[in-house]
Amino acid sequence: MSLLKMVEDIHPVDENGVHRRYVFSNGYQLSAVKFWASYGGDKNLWEIAVLNNDDEFVTGDFFPERAADDDVIGYVNNDELKNYVRQLEELL
Q: Rounded to an integer, what distance in angstroms lies between the CA atom of residue 28 and that of residue 62?
């Protein structure tokens, strides 16, 4: 599936935080957050999760090596984020 858009907003919990949503043509999304309580936010790194059309976490379905026991993947740098978006685009 192709990437339709990327939307960046202020994180709803932290006005200094960032919430990006990468929306794919089938309705799936990769959510990337960076704020004081996210895994890696204090190091300026991203926490990501994959959500299906029903907004359910499905991160482990696509990246089991990183999210087998959790709904999110933390401590993701900018290059890794781009790579996850590309991988997800290929997998969908």
A: 12
